[in-house]
Amino acid sequence: MRKIGKKQAVVTAWMLIATLGISPMVSVAGVSTDAENEHMVYTEVNNQKNGKMVQESLDIENASPSDAKVGADESENRENSSLGDDTEHEETREDKKDGIENPEYGFQAESAAKATPSEAIQEVQEATPSNAVMIAQSTNLWGGMEMSDHLDGEGTKASPYQINSSKDLKLLAYNVSNEEVDGYAGCYFILTRDVSLSDSASWLPIGYFTEADDTEPHPFKGNFDGNGYRIYNLKINDTTQSYAGLFGSVHGAVIENLTVDGQVNADSKAAVLAGEANDSEIRNCFSKGQVRGVGVIGGIVGEAYDSVILECTNTAGVLGGTDVSGNQEAFAGGICGSAQSSFISDCTNDTTDSYSALYSEGYVGGIAGNIYETEVYNSYVEGKVGSTSADYIGGLVGRMQSGQVKNGRFAGTIGAFTSATLKTAGLFVGYIESGTVELGDDLAYLYTDSEDKYSLNPFGNKLTPQIRLEHHIGAYYSNQRDYSLYQLGGFTKQTNCYFYEELEEGVLEIGKENVHHYAPSKTGDPVRGYLVNIPAIDHGTLSVLESQNNFAKEIDWANPGALAAGTKVLVYTSPVNDTEAEPPVYYELEPDSLFWTADDFASKELIQSGAGEMAFSMPDKNITLSATYRAMTNGVILDRNELTFDVEQIRSGSRWNSQIGWKVTDPQKLTATIIPDSAANKNIYWNVKDTDGSSTDVILVDENGVVSVNTSAKWIQDLIKAGVTNQELYPSKKITTEGTGYGTVTVTTEAGQKRASAFVTVNFKITDDTVVPVSGVELDQAELAFDVTRTLEGDRRNPSESYSVTPSKRLYETVSPEYADNKEVTWAAGDMDMLRVDQEGMVSVRADARWIADLIRTEEEANRENPYHQREAGGSRSSYVTVTTKDGDKQAVCAVNVSFRTVDNTVVHVEHVSLNQSEVKFMVEKLMTGSRTNPKVEYKVSQPQQLAATVTPGEAQNKKVGWSVADSSMAAISEEGLVTVKRDAKWIQDLEAADAANVAKNRYALSTASGTRDTIVTATTEDGQKTASCKVVVEFKTTDQTTKPSSPSGGGGGGSSSGGGSSSRSSAGSANGPGKEKGDWIQDTVGWWYKNQDGTYPKSCWQQLSYNGITEWYHFDEKGYMQTGWYTDTDGKVYFLHPIGDGTRGRMYTGWNLIDGKWYYFNTISDGTRGALFVNCETPDGYRVDAYGCWIP
């Protein structure tokens, strides 16, 4: 359905009248005595019948601007209010009886507002410009809103934005709907206190439209945590508004832990919390108050797509009305109006108090009005659902197209079993649309609180004869422990389990993680439970039982179940020994292995085991119990019986100062095998001994059985000392010492002290690779010189850069003595950032050296204030190259000098252009004087304005600028930047043409043509095509100072007439006036007139007459015909006489009235000028009207 913007509301209503020939009647007087049959908007068109007057009902909306705010106190009494005791026309009275619903129009006779020629309808408030109309005159919804200038917090999960006041909420709503942010996607918000919205007469939702004529809202996409607080005094009072609620539209959002209390009176997609939810999650939220609408409405969410609604409760009234257009399907649900591809679980709707109600036309459900591919689990409904105005009513779901409804309880009442409009009603589902919905798979575990309620079909139009015991559909008893199941029209009481077990079985059959479980209270009725998962235990048993609860059952791996949080839970576990094994295996509970773990892994608790009682307190989480049993140990064996290690000391370098190295066999791991393999206690420890049983330090073993050699052992060190001493005596000889040692490694089990050992052999030798050392080294050059040149080309602010460097130079080394064993050398640069040298002695310098970059950066910083200064960076730096012998680290050094300079060949280009003004304004005034029918017209146009362009930088070489204008039909600009405006622009001509057309309809109307148009003037540089713009605003207005000829008296529609002939005047009703006997209203070919009983008739006068006992003022022309429309009396006072043939044509208007799209105020006081138009003054209720009586917003 196309959404109508607020500013279009009034115009659209009148277009409806003109196009369809009908009159929209807006019922604002009150609520039916049966609140469930209330209809907010309805249309009534009565056709001519039995020659009587055709009546087209038009109830012009009556409400003062101050009355647009509807308070909660007023709403509480609506169920006992009525629309009044107005007498009905004969045409409608025949079709109605007191208190009986009219099947044609869907409302009760007592509740219908009736149009009669009377001012005596006290219940219908007199019309004033309502808040909705005031807002409708501006396309900007958010102007003038008082809000916070920022939100505390960072918007992260750790530091969310804090909502502390209604102004914070308004800022959030404004930023989302005005696209200041992308719906706050990925951001977090938290409510820090209870917040009242009493300062908002009609709340603009979070996730709403930017402009009144937008067709799609901007959704909220963040995470909102109510933190257990509430938002109250929410008010929305706009029956044209969709996406209504605290949140209008949410997409990808999370809303949780929030209570919202308020009054929502809207069109469709309306709820107390969120009008529409898409791909969002709403959990642990509460809605209170009342929501009204004509399309899709709900307590928590109006319409949901691909969303999750968990643990939510609604106590708000959900009151659906009539869609006049007939384009919207009506869906009303306590939690959600309509849900598609969504998940609803553990939700409650309670409308049992006198203020709450749940009804609508179309489809009504205690949880959802309509579901499609949606799962509804663990739902609970209390209170009355639906009324005689609904098409389909379901205790849980109104219409089920597809999806699942399971584990639901209906403890309420169905508002209607039969009526003229009701098609089907069901205890659980009102109407099943799809033939694929099946019992068991899609509908199961559904219960009412009384078997007597099954006088109504469980599923409305289908499936009732097919219900069997295995579908688990029945009723629970008042003690909430016992229940029965329905089959073949009768009930079978179940005695094998309690009702909480039946509900928990339903939860387990559903198999969803986020569905609540059920446990028994101390009296056996079902309460919220948390699942206890016990997996099968190897070599043992494990089960739990709630302490001191006669209704609890034992839970183990084969019998899952749930327990209430805070209850004491007893744990039972024992080993299962394998006595038939060879040898037999006996098991024991492993220490600290009995514990529970939360399914979210956020918490874990060890359960103390021992001789006493094993127990724990049940947490408020689903948990899994674990226990581990282990077998005892009978023996141990090793994977190897022998290990061998080779240890070699390698001596290198100078023979006079040897370098020592080691070559040792890698550590070797021994693997111990416990017998039997199923033994749970496999703890072991290791030690080493000499072969004679004494201690040894030659071999080591760690806790993992890894064996290694200790090169610092005394036996190895003694062999080394002997070899070195021999070489000191004979320095020309190498050392050739060798030897062998032995030991054992033993492993011992902790359980049973079982042992196994391995024999270890260690072979040791010394390898002498020492050499004659180098004594010195020299270089062929003592100094080298290099040049680095930097060249800049192109734009000075962004130049291209190149470097040229002196080619590389070679150094040659000489090592002494000439016969040294190792003459290898290495090369190194003193400053590696400045120099490079390879291992052949080739030296080069780096153009990207840090010292060169520092010189350049220093110059750039010095020129930061003048970036167009020519670059001159330069300098010199010295370093060195070193050659080092690998043998002896002998060194020689060569100095290296580097010179750096900059050659700057760049130029300066244009970078920016600016204008001396960002906006220039012009006025074109059309001045009209003289007679209004033949005015004198002249135009006043603002003088041309000069624009000046400034090019930067000032050093730029080419500063030429060109000018252009975006809309040349509005304005022109010279080469020098002089702006002139065109008086005869087409847009001005269009405004004048439209005004002329309006004046043509009323030759005495003032010319009001006005408007504003803007365009852009752009300056563009020749160098670089840089641009700057100036906004040109042209305002056109008409000043109409013409004088109006004196207004003729009389009005349209059967007023003054030449009376060119009489007619066959047929009687259409009777009335009487003060001081007269009864008379008759007569209509002939000319119009309506009134015939007194004595044959006379009123003319050229005001006459107070009665119709069906209701008195009103009428005016008759000089020929005696009733006048309608605008009428100016002989004293100059202006009146308006009702022009519509609705049974009250010709009556005099009083109070506020909407005429031709404008509001006028007529005197309501009987002071001799009752009904006279207020002009150029303030009305009694504080509003201003202009010289023509029009309300000034």
Radius of gyration, whole Å? 49 Å
Mean pLDDT comes to: 83
The biggest beta sheet is recorded as: 8 strands, parallel, barrel
Order of strands, main sheet, comes to: 12-15-20-25-29-26-21-16
Number of helices: 9
Counting DSSP E segments of at least 2 residues, the number of strands comes to 88
Total domains: 7
Through-space gap between termini: 31 Å
Q: Strand percentage, roughly? A: 35-45%
Shape: flat
The secondary structure category is mainly beta
Q: Give the proportion of residues in helices.
A: under 10%
Instruction: Indicate the low-confidence ranges by residue numbers.
Output: 1-138, 1046-1077
Domain BIG2: 934-982
Biased composition (Gly residues): 1049-1062
InterPro entries: Big_2 (IPR003343), Cell_wall/Cho-bd_repeat (IPR018337)
Signal peptide: 1-29
